[in-house]
Structures are given as C-alpha cells and as structure tokens.
Amino acid sequence: MKDLMGKAIWDFYHDKNAEDLLTETSISEIDELPVEYFFRGFEDMNLVEQKALELSKGKVLDIGAGAGSHSLYLQKKNLEVLALDNSPKSIEVCQLRGVQHVLCSNILDFSGQTYDTILLLMNGTGIFESLDKIDIYLEKLSSLLNDDGQILIDGTDILYMYDRDEDVGVMVPADHYYGEVDYFIHYKLDTEKPIKWLYLDFETFKRAAENNGFRIEKILQEEDSYLARLTKKDLN
C-alpha cells in the first residue's frame, strides 16, 4: 500500500505543498477531493456526521479515522476515543493533532477491547468491500461491541448513478451487486492500487445486519445517504 491518502493528509498538515486527491471508481470519472476536507471542524461536517457524533457515547472506536477530526471532536466531549486507521501517515497526523489514543491497523486484525460506540463515517459501509464479505465484517464488529453498545455507520445508495431504460428500468450489472465498485486514489502523479469498496442501500444492509444478530434503524436520510444505528439483539 502506497498510503497516498495518508501522504496527502501528512503533506497538508506539515504545509508541504499538498495537492488535491483525485478519486475515481469503476463506474465514475475522476473527481477532485480537497485534502482540507479531512480537517473540517464540526460546523463544516455534513448532517449525517454531525448526528453520529452527537449520538456517540461512552468508550468510542473511530474506524477509518483519517486525520482525526471526528476523534478530536469526541475528545472535547470528554469521551475516551481510539482512532483506528490502516494508514500510517494518517495515524501520525492524528497523534500530532492531539488524538490521545491511536492505532494503525486493519479492522479485521484488531482485537482486545470492546466499545460502547463504534463509529464508521464517510461511507462507512465501504470497508465491507463486497456483499459476500459483509458477514465477516459484521461478526468482527459484533466482537468489538459491548452488549448494550451501538454501531453508528453511514452508507450511500448509488443506484442513481446507473442509466435507466424505459422498458427494463435501471440498468444495473447482472454479475454483481450494483454497489460493489473498484475505488482508485491518485496523488501527485502516483496511483494507489485499487481497493474494493461497497456502497450499500439501506434495505440490503438491513437484511445483512439482522441475519448477523443486529437490530438496525435508520437514524437520518440525506438525499441518497443515510445514517444507521446497529445494536445487538437480546441475547436471551
């Protein structure tokens, strides 16, 4: 992994001529992602992020912490937060910005503690990679969650990105779920190896969550994106 996103975050923090990240997927063209987006304060975050942070409580695991903006906000609310990211340079910046507890790790390799709130934002369902891996990730998240804890996660339904035909409706792929894409990151003329990324509609997510022992509720809907809360079903 070249850690291009981490390099961009590191460059921006250290004022080292950071450039915009360029992102694209297997179904979309190149788009600019300003690096300062990862350094937003609460007032500049979208409503989904703000609501998730307002609902966070207890001991928090911030998965995919990036530059640490969500973790820093929760620390100011006197919550104990662990910022987790598999980007070494992003985690370094989290620490430099004042996040007290940080760890560079893939979520599937992480264990040892349980949490009252697990936070996955900025299309948190993306880490699931594909439909056939959702069970693996939900099992891992369940193992990290206290019995009375909550998972706050956002997702986006990208059905709107597909063409429509008057006769057959939306023209989605026949060989895979339409929200499964390859995600590419470009930075300063370099390109990261593509990753698998999952944009998940709420109803599909609901079925998967319930099949893995969770209750799920939609907390907020903003256009094609939503915030969901998962809690464990009664153990008895």
TrEMBL record:
GO terms of molecular function: methyltransferase activity
Highest taxon listed in the record's lineage: Bacteria
Keyword Methyltransferase among record annotations: yes
Example GO BP: methylation
Keyword Transferase: yes
Keywords from the UniProt entry: Methyltransferase, Transferase
Protein name: Methyltransferase domain-containing protein
